Amino acid sequence: MNLQEMRASDEKALQEELSKLLQEQFNLRMQKGTGQLTQPNELRRVRRNIARVKTLLNEKASKGSEA
Question: Which among 45, 23, 22, 25 has a CA at the least distance from the CA of 33?
Fold first, then answer.
């Protein structure tokens, strides 16, 4: 999901995306711990996507409280 799609989606969809990303991050950490991680850059990608989703959720929450 790219940034434009994320901005257009509602909070429920962002929460689901966040949940999916957190699960993916957990799986990657487990792979790293067991030495099975083949692409270490995936950890960085997932971590940054989590930050993007959290930022958008905070933006939407602050816009909701202003209105």
Answer: 25
